[in-house]
Amino acid sequence: MIQLARPTHRGRFATALATVAAGLALWPSVTGAASGPRFSPAANDVTEAELVAILEDAAEAEGLADADIVCDGALAGTPGATQRCSLSDDGQRTGVVFELPEGGGTPEWTPFIFADDVAHAATPTLAEAGIRGTEVSCADDLVGDVGTVIICSIDDRDSVIVEVETTAVDGFVVDMHAATHPNDRMDGEPGYTQEELERAVLDGYAAAFGEAQNRWTCAGGLDAVRGSSQDCTYRNGDEVGHLRITVDEMEGDYVVLGEVPFVTADELAAALEPDVAAEGLDGNVTCPEEVVGTVDTEIECLVGSGPAATPIRIRVTSVDLLRVGFDWSVGVES
User: Fold this and answer.
1) Residue-wise pLDDT tens for the chain (334 aa)?
2) Is residue 175 helix, strand or coil?
3) Which site from 183, 184, 294, 320 is most exposed, i.e. has the minimal number of CB atoms within 10 Å?
């Protein structure tokens, strides 16, 4: 499950709460290697005019002769040196970064989406995730290299991040995919405070329950230590649900969070008593432990007390968000 390049999530944290695929700079594709004179790495810089000429040739070949091309300066005649340019046409723009290859030759270029444009394209994911009244901010450009991932923030909302990935590149066109996730990046902090954890769970379930009915309290914070866990409770009128958040894996500043719903022992006993009584079994139901919301999980409860107590077997049959369905039978399996 762990992916070193970016945060990874399981369960509701594994599902992108909202996604968007956007192709910015929607022009016909061109190749990323331009034809033209060779340049020696030890020779003079590649001038700004020469860079513009390379892009003009590529753009003209694709019917974009009217594109406005601007470069930030010359490309230093040193292998590894880079220079940025931009192409604009009909209200659309894309970025290009030039690099001089080892051994010289024609400068190679790679398209990218400007950070502001990434943020603009990713902002609609928030409404789809039930987050409103705010916007996405990105500090980094998105490079046109498939698999590249950047993390963007949400204004006034520290508990959620937007993960943006390059999914396809076709000449000047860079396709991206954006998804919201709870902010599992620790950034050197000891983990979640109680308030941060409550906000992360609230954001994670906003789309499922809606802001008005989405009410959570957690028993405390969550340490960024593998195996740590914390219980959170959802309450809306008579509706009550429980969720256990766990730290399943860690890799550097990233953690893999897992979560599983559960029913407390007292709640399970109270839910069983009417059915048990209807079957003619006398006595209070007592359960020694909670039942975890994983299908086919089984525990034993007792009806009555002492030597005459009747054991009943509880088996989880379904899990839907915080709702744990179960059936029961008299006796203990051999």
Assistant:
1) 222 222 232 222 322 223 333 333 333 222 333 444 444 444 568 899 999 999 999 888 877 788 899 999 999 888 778 999 999 988 888 999 999 887 767 788 999 999 999 999 888 877 776 676 778 889 899 999 999 988 888 877 666 788 899 999 988 889 999 887 766 554 444 577 888 888 888 877 777 776 556 688 999 988 877 788 999 999 888 888 999 998 887 655 566 778 899 999 999 999 999 999 998 888 899 999 999 999 999 999 999 988 889 999 999 999 998 889 999 998 754 4
2) strand
3) 320
Distance between CA atoms of 28 and 22, rounded to whole angstroms? 15
Strand-pair category, 19-24 with 216-218: unpaired
Helices and strands: H and E segment counts in the chain: 7, 22
Tokens representing residue 232 in the block:
């959170």
From 94, 91, 95, 66, select the one nearest 82 (Cα to Cα): 95
Question: What is the DSSP annotation of 53-120?
Answer: HHHHHHHHHTT-TT-EEEESSPBPSSTT-EEEEEEEETTEEEEEEEEPPTT--SPEEEEEE-HHHHHH
Is the overall model pTM greater than 0.90, yes or no?
no
Pairing of strands 157-170, 173-182: antiparallel
* Contact (Cβ atoms closer than 8 angstroms) between residue 45 and residue 75: yes
Q: How many residues does the chain have?
A: 334
Q: Where are the domains of the chain?
A: 1-183, 191-263, 265-330
